[in-house]
Design brief:
Blueprint lengths: L3 H7 L5 E3 L9 H13 L4 E4 L2 E3 L2 E3 L3 E3 L3 H12 L3 E3 L1 H7 L9 E6 L4 E5 L2 E7 L10 H13 L6 H14 L2 H7 L5 H8 L2
Parallel strand pairs: 7-9
Antiparallel strand pairs: 1-3, 2-3, 4-5, 6-7, 8-9
Helix pairs in contact: 4-5
Length: about 190
Amino acid sequence: MVDLETIENKVNKGEVFFISDFTNLGNYEATRKSLQRLTKDGYIERIAKGIYFLPKKNEQLGVIYPHAEQIAKAIAKRDKARIIATGSTALNLLGLSSQIPLKVVFLTDGTARKIKVGKHTIEFKKTNPKNLSIKHQLTNLIIQALKSIGEKNVTQDQLNHLQKIIDQSGDRELVYQNLKDAPVWVQKKILDK
């Protein structure tokens, strides 16, 4: 049986966890019921079917929910899948857009699915392995952001912003090296600064 103390010993406040994280303490059904009871009693929060988190609480804001990227990374880790943020999510993470997307999309080699989290949707889109071949996260974000903007729509201000992020990361050589697997136009935009 799972109790709050067991969860607190294994999970930090604000962290996402799953029923499967506790099935070593009992069978799946008993674990599920324990987590349902703790949710009903207000000790933990349910994000979606089988996905929970130990809430952080703020006096002014109330319960602080994990952000979509945190939830997506937890799901990817559990499923042993790779993910890459795309579109408006990549733009937001790089500071190229201040809009927080209601639909957060990730490419994955795991299972394609949609998860509703309050007003937001997290979507995992199945992609071919070539799109996931670059292991460096910043490079992936840059490629996906530029693809989202489009070759003819990229501005010099956006490229300057990306160069600043690359400089601040301390990974300039790694980013440039990984860009060899990006579309040629993306390579030219970043390398021909």
